[in-house]
């Protein structure tokens, strides 16, 4: 899989994955804040932005995106354990990677972790419904209804930014990600025993206005023995942009503790 990968700065390795419909660009505030002390690596997930977008729906699954993350980490780390993290979809993939290969990590950062079985704030079935709308109506019309329109909670400027980002991706790829990844997160009880054995320092960050992700983060904090939960006041789902100064402070402090 040909992925667009960017590396900034020098020092211990940090690899971050973006959320659904985003790209490596979404991590710019955190890259700028930490590149003086760490090697910050960000990338576009398959089907997004500047990375390859296979046509087959079978190319999009939690397993395939986790393998992509593993490839980036292993190519950059040189055998040295790294800090790995992500936002929303990226957080879910980072957690799966941690469960698969805990020896490759020295720290885990999970921002706005996705609720099980769905990707959104709007209840179960949202991901599948969004994918069907993309197939029927095209990405712009479907996105207006499901991602950046009146019901999204975004202001006009925020909606325009989200729309600009979404329209950068192939519509069929986003539909495949919605069905194969976002609608397939396992429930916590399937992973709970593995999570209890995961002894990796973990920073959980979520916005106070992001109800589903907040509940998921609270559940994870209860079962993961080395996890710490931080809630950013008045922030929504894209917490690293909505509360960038607070998130930068939390991330920098976490990395300093690991050092």
**Global geometry:** globular
Tally of contiguous helical segments? 11
CATH class: Alpha Beta
Computed Rg: 17 Å
Instruction: Using the 3D structure, state the CATH architecture.
Output: 3-Layer(aba) Sandwich
User: What do the pLDDT scores average to?
Assistant: 93
Extended strand count: 7
Query: Distance N terminus to C terminus?
Result: 32 Å
How does the major sheet shape up? Answer: 7 strands, mixed
Order of helices and strands: EEHEHEHEHHHHHEHEHH
Residue share in helices?
40-55%
Uncertain stretches of 5 or more adjacent residues: 118-122
Q: CATH superfamily assignment?
A: Alpha/Beta hydrolase fold, catalytic domain
Structural write-up:
By secondary structure, the protein is of the alpha/beta class. The chain has a single domain (5-118, 184-258), classed as Rossmann fold (3-Layer(aba) Sandwich), CATH 3.40.50. 45% of the residues lie in helices and 15% in strands. The chain has helices spanning 28-34, 62-77, 89-100, 126-137, 139-146, 156-166, 171-180, 188-196, 211-223, 239-242, 244-258, and strands at 5-8, 13-17, 39-43, 82-87, 105-111, 202-207, 227-232. A seven-stranded mixed sheet has the order 1-3-2-4-5-6-7, sandwiched between helices. 46% of the residues are buried.
Quick structural gist:
The protein is of the alpha/beta class and 259 residues long. Helix content is 45%, strand content 15%. Helix 9 links the parallel strand 6 (202-207) and strand 7 (227-232).
